[in-house]
Design a protein that fits this description.
It is built from 1 helix and 3 strands; from the N terminus they run E-H-E-E. It is 14% helix and 21% strand. The protein has a 3-stranded mixed beta sheet with strand order 1-2-3, with no helix packed on it. Helix 1 links the parallel strand 1 and strand 2. The protein has a domain of 52 residues.
Amino acid sequence: MKSIDWDYEQEWRVLAKETSARADLFSYRPFDHTELVAIYFGCRTSEQAKDEIIAAARGLEIPISFLKMRDERIRFELTPMPIEV
């Protein structure tokens, strides 16, 4: 859960914690895809994972912004940088 200080971001996070040992790491969480407006990739997201997620999201045929977080080490913060697709 995020602090109320970040409420202005109007961000939704979908997380699931699996307690049983499973062979697969995927679980489906339904949501209204028309509410998806942006996908932010963490600094360490692999190119393969990024490409797969972008391809899946583009299949939704809705306008989505794609951004990759850049580590600003001097200021100890992350800056979102647009990804051209």
